[in-house]
Design goal:
InterPro entries: cNMP-bd_dom (IPR000595), cNMP-bd_dom_sf (IPR018490), Env_Response_Regulators (IPR050397), HTH_CRP (IPR012318), RmlC-like_jellyroll (IPR014710), WH-like_DNA-bd_sf (IPR036388), WH_DNA-bd_sf (IPR036390). This is Nitric oxide-responding transcriptional regulator Dnr. Pfam families: cNMP_binding (PF00027), HTH_Crp_2 (PF13545). A hairpin with a 5-residue loop joins strand 4 and strand 5. The termini are far apart. This protein is an alpha+beta fold and 253 residues long. It folds into two domains: 2-164, Jelly Rolls (Sandwich); 168-245, Arc Repressor Mutant, subunit A. Helix content is 40%, strand content 26%. The longest helix has 27 residues, at 141-167. The radius of gyration is 19 Å and the shape is globular. Strands 1, 2, 3, 4, 5, 6 and 7 form a seven-stranded antiparallel β-sheet that branches. Strands 8-10-9 form a three-stranded antiparallel β-sheet.
């Protein structure tokens, strides 16, 4: 096992530990949702230079004001995207789950990151160097369109999140988030699994951990859902939908 240094000019050098590939990196890339329709030439190009890296829980992948090194794809674990809020406090703005990608804005703009990322639990990523990503989108127009669509969808989610967390009450925020998770779930009939610990989810929703716990407890008492650790089973989607529009001025927590 060796260490691959991804240079961060402002904050120093961060070491993401290169690991022996758990599977063929090309095969792993082909299973990433945004790359499933990619042709052989594109996959070969991305796989050339791509590496599996391991990040311990809580460690940074890239820091604020660092220069981009490449595209990151989540193979296992999860990653939280962090930013400074208006009050100067760090908050979670997005969580990337297995199959998700991040770092693409830096790849295409070459600008220093204004945000930073941290592993949620032990996380394994695939790192694809900037030049390989740029070359791939240059020869694969459908991939370029899919990446553009993914970025636009992310921007829309962030806009929706800003609207919800700035004006919606605590219950409305939690209900909206659970419905979004439910919509993305691979098995709609099964329980939802929160992609990160509850304190991370609370930060994402601009709530205190205590407020999130109270809202989940109230929803459970009302028969809307059942909670067991990070597993949540929705009992009434109709009630959750009503909560998203109810009491918009409730305390944020």
């Amino acid at each position: 096992m060796s260490s691959v240094a991804l240079r961060q000019p402002v904050e120093g050098t961060y070491h993401l530990r290169k690991i022996a590939p758990p599977v063929c990196v090309r095969d792993a890339l082909a299973e990433i949702p945004i790359l499933r329709a990619a042709g052989a030439q594109t996959l070969d190009l991305l796989a050339d230079g791509a590496e599996f890296v391991s990040v311990p829980s809580g460690n940074s992948i890239f820091e604020r004001e660092s220069l981009p090194t490449g595209l990151f794809l989540v193979y296992s674990g999860a990653v939280r995207l962090m930013a400074l809020g208006p009050d100067g406090r760090a908050r979670v703005v997005e969580i990337f789950e297995p199959g998700g990608m991040f770092g693409e804005l830096g790849v295409f703009t070459g600008q220093r990151y204004r945000t930073w990322t941290q592993a949620v639990g032990r996380t394994v990523l695939i790192h694809v160097p900037c030049e390989r990503v740029v070359q791939a989108v240059a020869i694969d127009n459908p991939l370029s369109n899919r990446m553009l669509s993914a970025v636009c969808a992310r921007i829309q989610r962030l806009v929706d999140s800003i609207g919800c967390t700035s004006s919606g009450g605590a219950a409305a925020r939690v209900a909206s988030y659970l419905l979004e998770l439910d919509e993305r779930a691979a098995r709609p009939e099964g329980p939802l699994v929160l992609p990160a610990p509850k304190n991370t989810i609370a930060s994402l929703l601009n709530l205190t951990p205590e407020t999130l716990s109270r809202v989940l407890r109230n929803m459970s008492d009302e028969g809307v859902l059942t909670v067991s650790g990070r597993r949540i089973r929705i009992r009434s989607r109709a009630q959750l939908r009503r909560m998203t529009a109810a009491d918009p001025g409730a305390a944020a927590g």
